[in-house]
């Protein structure tokens, strides 16, 4: 098959085809559809390398539909292929380096998400953008009120508008806050819509309902975890998943001396932050008898809360992955035994499973009710 590499830039795409260590053809085009003359169904099939990026999934699907084999390259390991070597990094050079690396073999491949998980991830991105926008607007409104000597009392986000409208603000403060409050109201409505869409998608994913049985893990956290991991079977053990999400300590053991540092922070930053939030929730709000909380509290006593919460997030990743792989709900008995091995061999009855899912559903309803009442 032909060997081709594409460098997907924001404004242009660099095409490079190689054979036997020689460049056969170069092109620069403005959009991927233009390359139908080179890689379309009427052309000889090619193995095409592209770097993982925002456009990669669309390009992967299009080129595959044209009859090509597409390899998505892991961007965290492209330097070992020679990308950026000797200070030379342009779209044209990158495409050439990828093409020759593909011809040699051993190119580091990235996982291509399934269509269902891509949609889940898109809606999580929409919700995240809306939540962050709303938080920034509320922070701005609170800052203005403080500046005018009328600080607002604390309240949950979803009650902010009601709280402000019940507050006796001066005409000057009311005039300044009006455009902000209107925007917050619009963003909140859109955020509710995005959460309804996510809830509908979660219903179609039984694994999300399963993972949400873990204390401190709600639908959003479970959905984000599933949207990034995509397939639990592509990892052989929990440590690989923990490393994939950047929750393992970095290590430099050259020279015969082992040196371990802070976590690597590789992988999806958003999922990692959600897992950290879940770990805080487990430490502060779950039952004192829960084995996850007990394990985390033991680490707090030895290393302090900041290190403990990261360690607990890492352990939570292993628990979620094992539950997914072995199709088990959260069961403290399993966690109190031998972790992953127990998850594989411990029998769980259909009634216990149904009760666990029902408790998870009730937990979500209670949280929403509490938020609305505050």
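^ Assign residues to that structure.
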């Amino acid at each position: 098959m032909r060997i081709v590499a594409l460098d997907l830039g924001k404004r242009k795409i660099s095409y490079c085809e190689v054979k036997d260590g020689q460049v056969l053809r170069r092109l620069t085009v403005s959009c991927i559809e233009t390359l139908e003359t080179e890689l379309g169904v009427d052309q000889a099939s090619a193995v095409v390398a592209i770097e993982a990026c925002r456009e990669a999934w669309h390009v992967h699907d299009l080129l595959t539909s044209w009859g090509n084999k597409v390899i998505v390259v892991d961007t965290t390991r492209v330097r070992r292929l020679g990308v950026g070597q000797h200070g030379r990094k342009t779209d044209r050079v990158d495409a050439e380096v990828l093409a020759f690396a593909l011809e040699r073999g051993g190119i580091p491949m990235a996982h291509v998400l399934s269509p269902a998980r891509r949609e889940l991830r898109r809606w999580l991105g929409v919700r995240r953008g809306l939540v962050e926008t709303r938080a920034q607007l509320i922070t701005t409104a609170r800052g203005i009120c403080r500046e005018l000597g009328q600080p607002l009392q604390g309240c949950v986000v979803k009650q902010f508008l009601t709280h402000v409208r019940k507050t006796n603000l001066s005409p000057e403060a009311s005039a300044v806050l009006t455009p902000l409050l209107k925007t917050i109201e619009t963003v909140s409505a859109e955020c509710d819509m995005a959460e309804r869409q996510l809830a509908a998608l979660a219903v179609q994913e039984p694994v999300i309902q399963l993972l949400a049985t873990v204390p401190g893990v709600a639908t959003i956290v479970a959905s984000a975890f599933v949207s990034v991991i995509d397939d639990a079977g592509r990892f052989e053990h929990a440590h690989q998943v923990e490393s994939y999400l950047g929750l393992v300590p970095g290590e430099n053991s050259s020279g015969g001396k082992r040196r371990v540092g802070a976590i690597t922070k590789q992988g999806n930053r958003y999922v990692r932050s959600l897992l950290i939030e879940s770990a805080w929730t487990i430490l502060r709000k779950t039952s004192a008898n829960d084995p996850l909380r007990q394990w985390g509290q033991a680490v707090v006593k030895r290393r302090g809360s900041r290190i403990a919460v990261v360690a607990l997030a890492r352990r939570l990743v292993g628990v979620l992955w094992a539950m997914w792989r072995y199709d088990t709900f959260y069961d403290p008995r399993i966690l109190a035994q031998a972790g992953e091995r127990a998850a594989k061999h411990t029998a769980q009855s259909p009634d216990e499973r149904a009760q666990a899912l029902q408790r998870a559903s009730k937990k979500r309803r209670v949280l929403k009710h509490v938020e609305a009442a505050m």
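Residues 206-252+264-359 form one domain.
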